[in-house]
Amino acid sequence: MMKSVMMKNTYLLLVTLFVGFTAFGQQSNPSDAEIGNAYDLTEITQEWNAWFKAPTAENAFIGEFLQEYQVPQSGQNGLNRLETWYWWASHHPVQIDEYVERRNNFLSEEE
Question: Which residue from 8, 12, 59, 104 lies 20 to 30 Å from 73 (Cα-Cα)?
């Protein structure tokens, strides 16, 4: 009788572990849009790089933003400038939301 109960408990434990690991293995990473970031950080860093290479009156808001939020203008901790910008952007979502808002306002003024 005792052996039967132990076998049943062992069976239930194994089934539970199997189901848990199967569910864990089927999870996928959500896209930026799914987690609320409706912008692409690579695209943003490319916009910043375009400003860095050729600042103009049209993209001056980028330079103002980078200066206001003290975004590094050179590589940091073994990263190049673009990687540093990407790292900074990924760790400052509130500021990036502000940047996206400024960019959208600028683009709507041009129309």
Answer: 104
For 25-68, how does the pLDDT look when each residue is reduced to its tens digit (9 = 90+)? Answer: 566 665 555 555 567 899 999 999 999 999 998 899 999 999 99
Tokens of 80: 């190049």
Q: What is the DSSP letter of 31?
A: P
> ∠ CA(6), CA(21), CA(90), 5° rounding?
145
Cα 15 to Cα 3: distance, rounded to the nearest angstrom: 18
Please state the rounded mean pLDDT for residues 94-104.
92
Alpha carbons 48 and 93: distance in angstroms, whole number: 16
Rounding to the nearest 10 degrees, give the CA dihedral for residues 44, 47, 48, 49: 120
